Amino acid sequence: MKTYLGKMRGERIQRPFVGWRDAFWSWLGAFSGMALICWLSAGWLSKELLIVGSFGATSVLIYAAPESPFAQPSHVLFGSMLSAAVGVGCFQWLGAEPMAMALAVSLSILVMQLTHTVHPPGAAAALIAVAGGDNVHALGWWFPLVPIGVGCLIMLVVAIVINNLARHRRYPRYW
């Protein structure tokens, strides 16, 4: 029992310093990516079609932690799209019920781990597919493609451009 409880103490680690340059590039990437998605959504598509809550968390990863395995393009795109598809399946099977929400999140984690595409915002995309309301449900099997796939592609292109403008950054680490 002592060993089990001891694991919960955590470890003391030296946190990496984030200077103003990194913070600026993270801000610029997140602003540019989200502004482009919002502009496209408002200008070409229905107002809410490309705007999904999980994109906020994706922005943190690809712009503020571009070296993270969870931020790499295959994880962002396939982890999000596969998870969204799992969520759509759970909604179509069980409706917008608590059990469908729990299954969507847990099954999306399982699928991402088995496909080596873990992207934490993917689980949010799965949850949104179930709990997102009538606008999301009306998209059906299109939801993993539009808005999830298209939105992720837009953010990835912006991340590749912005992160590589900074001399001290490199993105992606791998495809």
UniProtKB/TrEMBL annotation:
<dbReference type="InterPro" id="IPR058581">
    <property type="entry name" value="TM_HPP"/>
</dbReference>
<keyword id="KW-0472">Membrane</keyword>
<feature type="transmembrane region" description="Helical">
    <location>
        <begin position="77"/>
        <end position="94"/>
    </location>
</feature>
<feature type="transmembrane region" description="Helical">
    <location>
        <begin position="139"/>
        <end position="166"/>
    </location>
</feature>
<dbReference type="InterPro" id="IPR007065">
    <property type="entry name" value="HPP"/>
</dbReference>
<dbReference type="Pfam" id="PF04982">
    <property type="entry name" value="TM_HPP"/>
</dbReference>
<keyword id="KW-1133">Transmembrane helix</keyword>
<keyword id="KW-0812">Transmembrane</keyword>
<feature type="domain" description="HPP transmembrane region">
    <location>
        <begin position="18"/>
        <end position="172"/>
    </location>
</feature>
<protein>
    <submittedName>
        <fullName>HPP family protein</fullName>
    </submittedName>
</protein>
<feature type="transmembrane region" description="Helical">
    <location>
        <begin position="24"/>
        <end position="42"/>
    </location>
</feature>
